């Protein structure tokens, strides 16, 4: 029954961590207020500004649930406020002596600073608007603008001169590969890819022109819209070729396609229609009966005849190449009838399936 106890324990641990961070921030806020009252805005403006800014960053991290980032900013703020308190020990109102030596009058001289930014009103051009303490105190005492115009004031902006979203502390979100998917969300940050594929390049495993994430049959080539293979009875579409289940038949020593092969070639034509960008090389092969030159010529004419048949069925000529190899590429021994029958063949090799 242990599993019933784990979840509550985790929740208690998470709440405890959050409570500690909030307690630490509350103590730190009081220390910042103490430093401000001791005159740190005048004597330690940079240290006080660092404390305030990092305390504000921690608030944002807590709201976003980033406990580790919040603790990091609180540590920087804690170190900064300690320095501010140390530097402002002797920064309070001064006692001055007024009058003749024989009659000494002690007066407490207060320097008026209406906006509390550490810059006296007599030199502060914006006496009612405190300088924003971004680590670079202005001479005129006026607050800095939002330098990068990202809607995050410079005191809250970790990158005040480069625009970025609040969740990234005002810093720009990088996109190294320029694919429009930020590196924080990009699983392939150095290689461009669509957002739909989490910034990684699309893959087309079966080479049918339909990327795997849209292909219902990613390992078998098939036409749009689903990429799944059509049910042909006499042919099989593969990535490298259209495999035929029977040979294209010609009259002996002739190149005219016999009627018995019309059904087969009609299915080849249908494949080419289903894959409108596919280009195919039609290869003619013979056995070794007869001379080499005559066999080469015969194989070329047979390949041309098959090409002409497919063109007549509506396939664009520029999608079809015809090459005769004669007896130069046997796939079986020419010493037997069976081997020679295998060598007399027509093959359909896919040049490209997608038109690229």
Written account of the structure:
34% of the residues lie in helices and 11% in strands. It is α+β, with helices and mostly antiparallel strands and 356 residues long. The chain folds into three domains: 3-87; 93-129, no CATH class; 216-352, 60s Ribosomal Protein L30, Chain: A. The strands form two sheets. A five-stranded mixed β-sheet has the order 3-4-7-5-6. Strands 1-2 form a two-stranded antiparallel ribbon. The longest helix is centred in the N-terminal third of the chain and has 35 residues, at 3-37. It is rod-shaped and about 140 Å long. The model is unreliable at 5-12 (pLDDT under 50).
Please identify which CATH superfamily of the largest domain we are dealing with: OmpA-like domain
- What is the average per-residue confidence, as pLDDT, rounded to a whole number? 83
Order of helix and strand elements from N to C terminus = HHHHEEEEHEHEHE
In what order do the strands lie side by side in the largest sheet? 3-4-7-5-6
Number of strands: 7
Number of helices: 7
CATH topology of the largest domain: 60s Ribosomal Protein L30, Chain: A
What low-confidence regions span 5 or more consecutive residues with pLDDT below 50?
A: 5-12
From the N-terminal CA to the C-terminal CA, the straight-line distance is 60 Å
**What is the number of domains?**
3
Give the biggest beta sheet.
5 strands, mixed
Helix/strand-derived category reads: alpha+beta
For the record, the CATH architecture of the largest domain stands as 2-Layer Sandwich
């Amino acid at each position: 029954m242990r599993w019933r106890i784990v979840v509550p324990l985790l929740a208690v641990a998470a709440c405890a961590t959050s409570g500690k961070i909030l307690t630490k921030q509350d103590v730190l806020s009081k220390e910042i207020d103490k430093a401000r009252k001791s005159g740190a805005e005048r004597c330690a403006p940079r240290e006080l500004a660092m404390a305030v800014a990092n305390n504000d960053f921690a608030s944002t991290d807590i709201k976003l649930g980033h406990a580790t980032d919040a603790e990091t900013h609180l540590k920087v703020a804690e170190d900064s406020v300690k320095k501010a308190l140390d530097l402002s020990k002797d920064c309070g109102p001064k006692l001055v002596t007024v009058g003749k030596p024989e009659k000494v009058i002690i007066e407490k001289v207060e320097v008026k600073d209406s906006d509390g930014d550490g810059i006296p009103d007599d030199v502060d051009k914006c006496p009612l608007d405190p300088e924003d303490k971004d680590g670079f105190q202005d001479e005129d005492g006026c607050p800095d603008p939002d330098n990068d115009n990202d809607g995050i004031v410079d005191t809250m902006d970790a990158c005040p001169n480069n625009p970025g979203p609040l969740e990234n502390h005002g810093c720009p979100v990088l996109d190294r590969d320029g694919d429009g998917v930020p590196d924080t969300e990009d699983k392939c940050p150095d290689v461009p890819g669509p957002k739909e594929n989490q910034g990684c390049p699309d893959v087309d495993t079966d080479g049918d022109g339909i990327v795997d994430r849209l292909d219902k049959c990613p390992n078998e080539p098939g036409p749009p819209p689903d990429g799944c293979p059509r049910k042909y009875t006499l042919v099989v579409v593969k990535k490298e070729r259209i495999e035929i289940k029977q040979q294209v038949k010609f009259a002996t020593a002739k190149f005219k396609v016999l009627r018995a092969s019309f059904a087969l070639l009609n299915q080849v034509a249908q494949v080419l229609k289903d894959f409108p960008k596919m280009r195919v090389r039609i290869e003619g092969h013979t056995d070794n009966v007869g001379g080499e030159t005559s066999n080469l010529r015969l194989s070329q004419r047979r390949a041309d005849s098959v090409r002409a048949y497919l063109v007549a069925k509506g396939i664009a000529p520029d999608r079809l190449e015809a090459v005769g190899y004669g007896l130069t590429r046997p796939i079986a021994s020419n010493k037997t009838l069976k081997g020679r029958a295998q060598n007399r063949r027509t093959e359909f090799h896919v040049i490209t399936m997608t038109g690229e």
